[in-house]
Predict the structure.
Amino acid sequence: MYRMGKEEIQQLAKVIEAKDLFKVNSGLQQSHQVETKLQTILGTKHPIFMTSGHAALVSALVGMGIGPGDEVIVPAYTYIATAMAVVAAGAMPVIAEIDDTLTLSPEDVERKITKHTKAILPVHIQGFPCNMDAIMQIAKTHNLYVLEDACQADGGTYLGKRLGTIGDAGALSFNFYKIISCGEGGALLTDNRKIFENALIYQDSSAIAFFGNQMEGFSTEGFCGNEYRSNELCAAVMNVQLSRLDDILFDLRKNKNYLMENLKDVCEFIPSNDAKGDCGTTLAVRFESEEKARKFAEHESVQGLLPIDTGKHVYKHWTPIMEKRGACHPLMDPFKMEANKDIVPDYKQDMCPITLDKLSKVVYVGVDPDSTKAELDAKIEGIKAAMKTL
Ligand SMILES: Cc1ncc(COP(=O)(O)O)c(C=O)c1O
């Protein structure tokens, strides 16, 4: 989260003064406005504002009819919540390598497809757009769903289209660490009516039939699902945050471009599937060895971070997944379900060596949308000084 101020306080005060906190029947319609803004800003037909990015991912998978007996291909480098969402839907996460862009490798996706594969789940990690043309083509050839995890890429684009709106569905996160935030929150994006109806029921299954006219015109009958309904307090904040989104992205990209332009003679950056669409949150410098990457990252004027050190973003640290503990109750555990018995993956610590290698030779340097030119120039000098020590 980069910017927040009195506008958010004013909107929150309105909700509190009205004592009108419920999403569905609120007089202020803050949640409804969030969904309208998601439609107009992002260009998606059926957005659902809910409690988290994970909730949006699970709801999308359920909306696609994915469950036990199905495989979903996820990248080896993403936050553990991506893979957990697949397990929450009852399916098996199949882990694939990343490529030089640090996003899902289309080549490895092709290798990992089996007759059980139902969906590809590309992740626009750190706001880096995935190779969506290649992924969409593979999905078309093999008749698979595509669910984009854009939880770290709110508002980013790929060839002019907003991330999360290219596949059959997408998920955004508005937790504290994201480009925009309402504390905790998320959104499912889809143009697919069937996915929308299933997901809307799933994410609010006890209330859906009783409040408002949410199921009017539905061809789907209600079923037991979950309670991921958001509220008007979070929506009040998110309404303002969404109106800030494009300005934040503009400043992030401007500052990242300035850094890259002034460092291009001394640094090698990771390639991008669409540099214009990249969210600009992260400068990613590539080195020939982990040793050099670590020396650079530790330099006092850099204070960088190697993605290999980001804990639960690297598959080998997804402990409950790697150790196949898919639920509290054994009969509810997808790793133990009869329908999955032939497709439980054989996860190994070293199963994605390309991913581990790439993540240990890159250093992330954070980009701040509010840096002054003097601060950016100081950062450039600091990085140049660190490069000289290698
Ligand atoms: C790539 C990715 N996917 C999913 C999530 C889950 O989002 P949330 O925390 O809103 O549930 C996160 C959260 O950090 C994430 O980074």
